[in-house]
Hints:
With 250 residues, the chain is α+β, with helices and mostly antiparallel strands. It is 46% helix and 16% strand. The protein is built from ten helices and six strands, in the order H-H-H-H-H-H-E-H-E-E-E-H-E-E-H-H. The protein has a six-stranded antiparallel sheet. A hairpin with a 4-residue loop joins strand 2 and strand 3. Helix 1 packs antiparallel against helix 2, helix 2 packs antiparallel against helix 3 and helix 3 (34-46) packs antiparallel against helix 4. The longest helix is centred in the first third of the chain and has 19 residues, at 68-86. The chain starts with a helix and ends with a helix. Pfam families: TPR_19.
Amino acid sequence: MDPALQAIDAAVSGRWxxxxxxxxxxxxxxxxxxxxxxxxxxxxxxxxxxxxAISNYKKVLxxxxxxxxxxxxxxxxxxxxxxxxxxxxxxxxxxxxxxAINGDRTTTLATSNLFIEEPGRTKTTSLIHLGENWVVxxxxxxxPVYLAPHAHRVSVETDNGLYIGRLADDLSRRxxxxxxxxxxxxxxxxxxxxxxxxxFLRETFKAEKLQGIPSFPTTEKQSYSSxxxxxxxxxESSDESESQEASEEV
Length: 250
């Protein structure tokens, strides 16, 4: 069998040590084989050798500066490496970092039909006020994340409770109102890169009193605040309480 196919077969089967050795052998004969370098970097990553993975992805970019696989992987890994070496984190965060580096994620990743749009019941939206770069860099497309409603904001967190970002203010107000009335939602990472996180929201349960009221209006005349029975009766909070809430989210 062709060595490249052997390396791919070993990787697909999860035999990362074998995949690493095969790709090293390929590179002994052709040090500029960028596909083998990418495969070797991935194998190193799966074996917990973060520095070697970064080094090999950099070699790919020296050969092919526009290699998309190496560019995306390196962006994530350098952020993780910076956090690993230079930032003191809690044991909870270290656990997430380790899983992100080793590829041993406990979350369910995207399926082919995860992002099917349903008018009024689903929405893709960008988060604002993003959290730490290393948290954002560890996210995968299709990864479940969780809404954390506050008095006037809705934060989005990982399964470990790490802050990712928050919904825009108008969407936050609407979601808070609908959740208070009994609706339920799930959300998943749609895409994530440094400086940008998009999530996919899906309504999973509609309260009886909200029948006929879409969670996410699709017409221009309907705004996110068009249904806010709980919010309308509340007084606006003071600047001091807003600041306190923001600090609690982060």
